[in-house]
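Structure (tokenized):
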């Protein structure tokens, strides 16, 4: 069964919506941008989040101590590297028993390989651009990039990822939409 991560959570109402839908993962974006959250905020939100839902922290070229603080505080369980982080950093985090997601943005001229626990393919920097799924040369553990209720079944059929990652695809007027979250979580869990 394909799992699903709802990313870009920022508010108590986002957490309430996610708790009602029960996705497998919840993502908090520590990097600068529209969905940016501070650690203190994530600590509070994590306490409200259903304990069955695994929390993920998204970082872009952050210092290692910032990422470790987020894990040790209990705010997150998995570190997602969404910048230009090196394999040396991945190995260092793994040596510290951290679970790591390494993101590769397409198109890329890098050879896609990593020691991270999970490899994620995205269309860019969370800009909502859709990937040409049929052109992927490898099967990522996690697929992201403009996925919503209308194309999630096609994404799963064409790519067969272990996890679908959705953020803007469950928003209305730049806010998380509880109905869209519930619909896509239900659909993914049924596929």
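Design, position by position:
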């Amino acid at each position: 069964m394909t799992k699903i991560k709802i990313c870009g959570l920022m508010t108590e109402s986002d957490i309430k919506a996610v708790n009602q839908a029960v996705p497998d993962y919840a993502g908090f974006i520590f990097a600068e941008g529209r969905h940016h959250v501070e650690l203190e905020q994530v600590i509070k939100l994590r306490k409200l989040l259903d304990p069955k839902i695994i929390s993920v922290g998204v970082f872009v070229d952050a210092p290692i101590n910032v990422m470790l603080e987020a894990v040790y505080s209990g705010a997150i369980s998995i570190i997602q590297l969404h910048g230009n982080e090196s394999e040396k950093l991945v190995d260092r985090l793994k040596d510290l028993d951290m679970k790591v997601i390494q993101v590769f943005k397409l198109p890329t001229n890098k050879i896609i390989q990593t020691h991270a626990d999970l490899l994620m393919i995205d269309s860019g920097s969370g800009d909502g651009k859709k990937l040409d799924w049929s052109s992927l040369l490898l099967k990522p553990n996690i697929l992201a990039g403009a996925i919503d209720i209308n194309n999630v079944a096609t994404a799963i059929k064409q790519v067969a990822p272990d996890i679908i990652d959705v953020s803007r695809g469950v928003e209305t007027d730049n806010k998380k939409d509880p109905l869209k979250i519930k619909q896509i979580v239900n659909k993914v869990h049924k596929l």
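Reviewer-requested clarification: DSSP finds six helices and ten strands in the chain. The chain has a mean pLDDT of 92.
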